[in-house]
Amino acid sequence: MGQDRLRVAVVGAGKWARDAHIPGWQRDPRVDVVALADVDATAVAEAGEEHGVERRVTDYRDLLGDPDIDVIDVATGNRAHFEISVAALEAGKHVLCEKPVHHDYRETRRAADLAAAKGLKSKLGFTFRYAPAVQYAKELIDSGFVGTPYIFNGYEQNSQWIDPATPLRQVDPDADPATLQVSSIEGYGAPIIDIMHWWLDSPMTSVVGTMRNFVPERMVRDTGLMSRMNIDDGDMWIAEFGSGALGSIQSSYVTVGNYPGVEARIFGSEGAVIVRLVDEAGICQTIKTATKDSVEFVEREIPQRFFPENGHSREPWPFLFYSNLCRNFATEILSGQEANQGDFRQGALVQETVNAFERSYRDRRWVGFPLEV
Question: What pTM was computed for the model?
Fold first, then answer.
């Protein structure tokens, strides 16, 4: 048996928490956001005032022993994700965590094992999986619309950091500037890698690809200084799958286009689907389909059942897509059933793919998958 209501504490009070996480939860009438935490007392106070959350703490550990909290939502910087997620699971809380849980897929898998051992549910912040257009496309694929999947193309790209003066987030201050560091493929590529695995639904067997640093000098948000940032701001990858399908991924910080710049395409023996999650002309998503007998792509209307109540494609995409993510997680927990899409196990698969891509670039070769084989 499930429960009737869900009580959530959000850890992290930055822009993404305030624009997506907190309002996403609060949109669901079954959910109460009961507490906020952030090491910045001013930030947590402002977020609490903005969203009407009275309980505010500067140490997330103050919340872990509270039996009236069901979910810990980790919306902090990357470096704190793993520590907070594991501590919350150990305390018996369901966990939503922004990506990545950990830069090493084995640690993410360990967190997934911990959740399973404790009978808890987990979810990664794979925002774009929960876009109504992406969910609708998955239903079409599962219904046989594309037939046997042959090719997947995934893109996550936009102009967000094409200007080197735009402050760069999530910088590793200890990184060796002589070595190209993973950035775009993990921060931007992970959501489209997630969709690739989900749509193709076949074991990946090998990968090859490359990374580039196109803009070497960038503004660093934490210092306010232009610095040498040897990061992958452009990537291209090819993947092979056990079914015989092929996949390609392109992620970049320096490709012209509107945020968030996500596009997923799948082509099969019977038809094809293209989903664009790009904010254009006030619309944040479109889906187009074609068949082998009618090869011109035509736009489809996304059925209302894939939206939150009263939702529509002219909403800001962070609010719309994250509302769906939170609604999905709330349903999974409250139902008491086994369903748990986009969980830490899926996060480990995506992170292992990122790690395999990096190994391919470092070794300049095809890399077998899974990595430990």
Answer: 0.96
